[in-house]
Amino acid sequence: MFNIIDYKDIVDDKECILIDVRSPKEYKEATIKGAINIPVLLDDERDIVGTLYVRESVEAARTKGIEFISKRLPQIFNDIQNMYNNGEKKIVLFCSRGGMRSGSIYSLLYSLGIKVYKLRGGYKGYRKYINDNFEGVNKGVKYIVLHGKTGVGKTEYLKALKEKGFDILDLEGAANHRGSFLGSISLGKSNTQKMFETEIFEALKNRKGNLVFVEGESKRIGNIIIPEPIWSSMEDGIKIYIEDSIENRSEILIKEYIKGNDSVKELIDCLDNLKRYLNDKRVEEYKKLLKECDYKTVCEELMLKYYDPLYSNSFKIKDFYETIVNKDRNETINRLIDIYNKNT
C-alpha cells in the first residue's frame, strides 16, 4: 500500500525533500518550489514511450519504459539513499498525476527498505492546491507599489528592501522577464505561467506581514499574466512614484542589460521589434551605436523617444500617495521605509 500524502500536509515541513521524477523538460517548465529532479525517463525516452502508448499499446509502452528505467536504477537508488539519511528526511516522490512513474520508483525503494511517500495527484495535485489557495494567500495583503519610468531602479529598490528584512513581491524576477520588448535581454528563457504562479505563491505564503513592496507593472509581463487577485490588490495599493535623472537611469539600464557581447548581440537583434514605433533609420542608427559600444546614447534615446512617452500615456491617471525625487538612493530607501512604518 502506498504511503500517499497530500501537499497541504507537507507545505510547511522543512524536513521534507520533494523529488520530481518527471523528465528534465517537464521539470524546467514548472515544478514544485525546491523540488529536486531525478528523472525516471529522459526527454527523448519519454517521447518514445509516449509514441508507443498512442500508436501501439500500453504494454509496449511499459516494456520500453522499463528498459529505459532499468539502466539508471542504480544511480537513482544511490541519489535517493544519500538524501534519505536513515529516515531523518521525509522523501516525497511525484510525477505528473501521481501515477506510474512515481509509483514504480516508490515500489522499488520501499522494497529496499527506504520509507518514502508519494504525493497525491502528483504535480497536478500541487497545482490544484495553489489554485484553491491563491486568493487566500493574498488575502489581507496591502501592497506598496513602486512606480517610475524605465531605468529608475524599482527592482533595485525591492532588492535593497528585501536585504533589510522587508517583504517584497518580485514579479519580474518570478517571470524572468522585465515586461517590455527588450525585457528578456540577458535573462534567458522566461518562466512559464505555472512557474510564475508558483514563485509568487511561495513568496506570499512565506511573508512575515501583510504590508508588501511590489513594483508597478502592467497586467502582462512578457507572456505572463498577473493573476487577478494580485492585480486587484496592487490597483488598490499605496502607489509611490519615484523620479530620477536620465543619467542615473541610463547607468542602471546599462548595468542591467549589458552583460557582455552576447547580450549586445541579443539587444541588436531585438531592436527590430521597435521599427513599428520608431522609423527604420533611427533603429539602424541605434544598432550602429551599440556596435560602437556607445550604450549611453542608445539608452537615453530609447527612454526619451519610446519608453518615457509610453509610460506617461499608460500611467498618467494614477493617484500617487507620494512622489519621491531621488537624490541619494539610501535616502530614497529610508523614505520608502518611513512610508511602510506609517502604514503598518
UniProtKB/TrEMBL annotation:
InterPro entries, alphabetically? AAA_SelU, P-loop_NTPase, Rhodanese-like_dom, Rhodanese-like_dom_sf, SelU
Q: EC number(s)? A: 2.5.1.-
Q: Where is the Rhodanese domain?
A: 12-135
Q: Which species is listed as the source?
A: Clostridium sardiniense
Question: What GO molecular function terms would the record report?
Answer: transferase activity
For this protein's source organism, the top of the classification is: Bacteria, Bacillati, Bacillota, Clostridia, Eubacteriales
Which keywords appear in this protein's UniProt record, sorted alphabetically? Selenium, Transferase
Q: What is this protein called?
A: tRNA 2-selenouridine(34) synthase MnmH
Q: What domain of life is recorded for the organism?
A: Bacteria
Q: Name one Pfam family in it.
A: Rhodanese
Indicate yes or no for the key word Transmembrane: no
